[in-house]
């Protein structure tokens, strides 16, 4: 009798264990099937946000995005062209979102900041590249940026307000013609020579222009990329050159009597 009771208890324990195993197995599978996107974050393979500043102070703002895994057809990206004009998508499977009347709406505000209002088209896939541009009047004002000793303070900042992880983020600035990078201030990410021999930024020379680019990898949502720098005119303007020539001519004229040969020689 006692042996029979033990057998029944063991059988009940085995049934309970098997039931628990089945619930865990199929319950977890059902949960994963219901929300497959929650385990894998959205990604952008790369994003390049650049400002190309002309001598007039106007700038061309551009964003170049390579898609990764995206679960939404809406792509809102921070931009520096909220007051810009001539917004256009020059490449890729995307269009601007629309307002209530159906008219294109290139820029929208998110948390009080301007964003590119991009809408992915059907068929958009990982690896596709999207490029959008706009003109920003008066981005650079020499009088407003000039500091002591003739240097100009410049800088940019970009906050990842998307739900996607940006695998490679590049934030760039092409300086106005004639300005050269003299000193790099605070940057995000920062530069620590003890951790890496290479800084996160590059100073390039393209034609007669200095170009500053800072790179961040795996930029999480709400992560930030930023830099501040000082620039100085790298060459004299035509007015300074004309004044220099005039002074040299006056100097020579003041010594014309000394330079004349004496009579009889």
Concise overview:
It contains four helices and 14 strands. The protein is an alpha+beta fold and 265 residues long.
Which descriptors apply to this entry?
single chain; 265 residues; alpha+beta; Immunoglobulin-like; 2 domains; seven-stranded mixed beta sheet; four-stranded antiparallel beta sheet; 4 helices; 14 strands; 22% helix; globular
Helical residue percent band: 10-25%
The value of Rg in angstroms is 32 Å
How far apart are the termini?
Answer: 148 Å
Question: How many domains in all?
Answer: 2
Strand content: 35-45%
CATH topology of the largest domain, by name, is Immunoglobulin-like
| Gross morphology | globular
Report the total helices: 4
| Average pLDDT | 83
What would you say this structure looks like, in words?
By secondary structure, the chain is an alpha+beta fold. The chain has 2 domains: about 1-40; about 45-240, Immunoglobulin-like (Sandwich), CATH 2.60.40. The protein contains 4 helices and 14 strands. A 7-stranded mixed beta sheet has the order 4-8-2-1-10-13-12, with no helix packed on it. Strand 1 (about 45-55) and strand 2 form a beta hairpin. The longest helix has about 35 residues, at about 1-35. Residues about 20-40 and about 235-245 have low confidence and may be disordered.
Helices and strands, with pairings:
Elements: H1 2-34, E1 43-53, E2 59-67, E3 74-78, E4 85-91, E5 94-96, E6 107-110, E7 113-120, E8 129-136, H2 142-145, E9 152-159, E10 165-174, E11 179-188, E12 201-206, E13 209-219, E14 224-233, H3 238-254, H4 256-259
Parallel strand pairs: 1-10
Antiparallel strand pairs: 1-2, 2-8, 3-7, 4-8, 5-7, 6-7, 9-14, 10-13, 11-14, 12-13
